[in-house]
């Protein structure tokens, strides 16, 4: 599998999961537009790719406004000659219980996660459709959007909404050959580092050691690198037939989510890197990829109406 000649945008890619996605896409051959609000983080992310022989540039701007979405597409086209892949990862947290959550807490999270995903996908899909690009849209969700989580009304609403939009876009973009999928990662972050339950996993990772099997296998909890392979896979030609899906990944575990339960679970020792995905993903998911849109039975004859104009 190769992404040579492809151009990708990854929002919120100055650090953490977003940086892992950008680095993996670059490792597979794609040129990458980095995005972050922190100029230093963005510059460091670009350097991590270019120093390894890849191609990258940065757009330092907050995700949410249409102007940022347009600037990201313009940077991809002007710098690298086109756009094939969009990964929407940018996010922010304002965690509070319902009765303590302010309007600003809610609007800020919705604005970055949900509106930011919408504006960036709209800009990218418009370019792809107008230029005949069979592109790849990959939106980052969360288990919170699938299950809910105490103190995260705003985040749960945004992440659930992203999956709903992805399924809608899969329908709308199918004719253009553009796929739209959501990735639901479970990985070590700055937030999980503060939770005592994950301490052993975080300590092992900080020492450069593999996390205990309980975390990687039983919980499907791993590093940001473990979540990057699925993003690169979905961005490739190998995944041309995969669209409208919510795909969970973490540690050694891969899942396809339905509403609201996963319908298939598979494990691969050492994690789901790109070679493992390329070799096993079709067989693992065969018969388990979810349908898109509602399915209606044929109307009874006495309820059928002539088509307009007839």
TrEMBL record:
Q: Which SUPFAM superfamilies match?
A: NAD(P)-binding Rossmann-fold domains (SSF51735)
Q: Which residues form the Ketoreductase domain?
A: 6-189
GO MF terms, alphabetically ordered: oxidoreductase activity
What is the protein name given in its UniProt record?
SDR family oxidoreductase
Q: Which Pfam families match?
A: adh_short
Q: Which InterPro entries does the entry link to?
A: KR_dom, NAD(P)-bd_dom_sf, Peroxisomal_Beta-Oxidation, Sc_DH/Rdtase_CS, SDR_fam
UniProt source species: Microbacterium limosum
Matching SMART domains:
PKS_KR
Q: What is the superkingdom listed in this entry's lineage?
A: Bacteria
Task: State the family it belongs to.
Answer: Belongs to the short-chain dehydrogenases/reductases (SDR) family.
Q: Where is this region: Disordered?
A: 289-310
Which keywords has UniProt assigned to this entry? Oxidoreductase
Query: What PANTHER family has UniProt attached to this entry?
Result: DEHYDROGENASES, SHORT CHAIN (PTHR45024), SCP2 DOMAIN-CONTAINING PROTEIN (PTHR45024:SF2)
């Amino acid at each position: 599998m190769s992404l040579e000649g492809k151009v990708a945008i990854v929002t919120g890619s100055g650090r953490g999961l977003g940086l892992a996605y950008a680095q993996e896409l670059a490792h597979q051959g794609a040129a990458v537009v980095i995005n972050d609000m922190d100029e230093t983080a963005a510059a460091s992310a670009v350097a991590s790719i270019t120093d390894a022989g890849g191609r990258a540039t940065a757009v330092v701007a907050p995700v949410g406004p249409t102007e940022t979405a347009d600037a990201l597409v313009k940077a991809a086209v002007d710098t690298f000659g086109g756009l094939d892949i969009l990964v929407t990862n940018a996010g922010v947290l304002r965690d509070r219980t319902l009765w303590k959550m302010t309007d600003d807490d809610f609007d800020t999270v919705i604005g970055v996660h949900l509106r930011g995903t919408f504006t960036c996908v709209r800009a990218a899909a418009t370019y792809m459709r107008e230029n005949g690009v069979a592109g790849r849209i990959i939106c980052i969700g969360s288990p919170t959007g699938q299950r809910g989580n105490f103190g995260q009304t705003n985040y749960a609403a945004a992440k659930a909404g992203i999956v709903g939009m992805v399924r809608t876009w899969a329908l709308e973009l199918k004719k253009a050959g553009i796929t739209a999928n959501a990735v639901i990662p479970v990985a070590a972050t700055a937030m999980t580092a503060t939770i005592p339950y994950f301490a052993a996993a975080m300590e092992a990772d900080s020492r450069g050691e593999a996390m205990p099997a309980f975390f990687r296998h039983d919980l499907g909890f791993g590093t940001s690198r473990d979540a990057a392979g699925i993003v690169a896979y979905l961005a490739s030609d190998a995944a041309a037939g995969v669209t409208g899906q919510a795909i969970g990944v973490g540690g050694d575990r891969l899942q396809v989510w339905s509403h609201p339960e996963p319908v298939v679970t598979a494990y691969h020792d050492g994690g789901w890197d790109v070679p493992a995905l390329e070799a096993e993903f079709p067989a693992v998911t065969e018969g388990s990829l979810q349908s898109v849109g509602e399915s209606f039975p044929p109307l009874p004859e006495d309820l059928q109406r002539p088509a307009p104009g007839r």
